């Protein structure tokens, strides 16, 4: 019978518990675990616990508070996943293990030993993160600190208190210095990251909903040095009402969905572990010639209308989409337009040329290092931004146009005035209930719209629902979406296809199109995916 080889013990020591004086513990540190056994008189009956270094965010050593006490301490901070009682759901819960080192007579000797343990635990926890098989990670550098951007009005207006109640202490435990910037108005974050000296920051982290990240991504893409700037690791701590990207990265870790607070702690944990993945972006071109960059979704019809109409229910938090869905179902309507796409399996660059970008490393910036080029990085093209004076959007200030966005060339697209290339698929139906392109798994915290999506799969997951679906069938689809089961529901009106590019031409003169949940100029729109263009801190 094969038995697992016991791991080599790197450090062994016997220490008193910091709280509780006389109780002593034997600690064994291996490459992956910290085993803690209580030492009792009958040593045969020792009881112990084992803590995985995967769950550890940090460890620090410190002196005793009283000058005359020669003892020193080390505290290790774990966030293991705990299931709720009688449920598969749950979340990460904090566990601090603190031990007193007092073997030496002098305080310096004890502090030295405490530091040796703290360093070894820290190094072990840095080696073991929530990595998924088949994903290439970089590591966030920890030299300069994080820029944390908070939208105080996002969600139920509690982003700041959510941060201070659930995240601030965790960042300190992980030894991550940070600067908190509270946004004062829409596009404040966009302006800040456009002008920021990015060499001063290890990552840009938003504490908000997806809307603030949309600002940050587009601010980075408006810079002259966009190619390097967009490789700045981005982090997301959910404080909004939709929190679709946060829910997606939590889902990718394989953890079951939990409450909003549990999602926040999960994302805080991922941030502390600092593993950086590539993130697909889509460039979205509008009829005015404006172009913007999107990390999540493009929606028209039912979903876009619900997103915008449910703004008025944001005081109920994530439930606003359920309320909005029920309200819109009552006045279900048909949206007329033309949809065309380039299926994922058929995507030669239009000009036949290879991408013009040089073979850059995964992160050519100062932030992190990883192999492999990003295939779509071409020459910088100048486009207009998505604001114009006739078209105030949720994401733009119409009175003060933003600079043009730059970015890679859209090698799969032809100008909107021209017909789509002949190898594209043009959808026969022209009456829809919704059109939705997703690049990540979740549309909202509890809507697993694209179960097959991942951070960097290089495709857009296109869904459309043809007109003719009953209210009851549509409601059933949305209920099934909670568990990602809508595709298996056998609904003949629902079509799902993986695409690299798409074009949508609404026929009706008025309507709503959203990109990452933000309203954009209404009219013909097209998009193409750019594989792994951005970097995201995720497990
Ligand atoms: N200080 C601010 N005052 C007003 N609006 C802001 C401010 N900071 C950011 N915004 C804008 O508020 C909008 C909503 O922000 P965000 O998406 O972060 O929160 P949310 O809508 O609650 O979350 P979600 O998108 O997950 O539903 C975005 O368009 C963002 O640009």
pLDDT under 50 segments (min length 5)?
A: 350-400
Structural class, judged by helices and strands? alpha+beta
Give the count of structural domains.
3
Mean pLDDT over the full residue set: 88
CATH C-level class of the largest domain is Mainly Beta
Q: What is the helix tally?
A: 11
The portion of residues assigned to helices is 10-25%
Q: What is the general shape? A: elongated
Q: Which molecules are bound in this entry?
A: adenosine-5'-triphosphate
Rg value: 26 Å
CATH topology type of the largest domain? Tumour Suppressor Smad4
Task: Supply the CATH architecture of the largest domain.
Answer: Sandwich
Compute the number of strand runs. 27
What share of the residues does DSSP label as strand, in percent? 25-35%
Distance between the termini: 34 Å
Biggest sheet record: 12 strands, antiparallel
Description:
It is a single chain. It contains eleven helices and 27 strands. By secondary structure, it is α+β, with helices and mostly antiparallel strands. Strand 21 (442-444) and strand 22 form a beta hairpin. It has helices spanning 107-127, 159-166, 168-173, 188-195, 210-221, 226-229, 244-252, 260-273, 302-309, 320-330, 471-481, and strands at 11-17, 24-29, 33-39, 48-52, 56-63, 72-78, 81-83, 90-92, 95-101, 138-139, 146-150, 178-182, 203-208, 234-238, 275-286, 291-294, 297-301, 335-343, 425-426, 431-438, 442-444, 447-448, 460-466, 494-506, 513-515, 518-520, 525-537. 47% of the residues are buried. It has three domains: 11-127, Pleckstrin-homology domain (PH domain)/Phosphotyrosine-binding domain (PTB) (PH-domain like); 138-281, Rossmann fold, CATH 3.40.50.10330; 284-531, Tumour Suppressor Smad4. Helix 9 packs across helix 10. The longest helix has 21 residues, at 107-127. The model is unreliable at 350-400 (pLDDT under 50). The strands form five sheets. Strands 10, 15, 16, 17, 18, 19, 20, 23, 24, 25, 26 and 27 form a twelve-stranded antiparallel beta sheet that branches. It has a seven-stranded antiparallel beta sheet with strand order 4-3-2-1-9-6-5. Bound molecules: adenosine-5'-triphosphate (ATP). Residues 151-155, 183-186, 188, 208-212, 215, 240-243, 314, 394-395, 517-518 line the site of adenosine-5'-triphosphate.
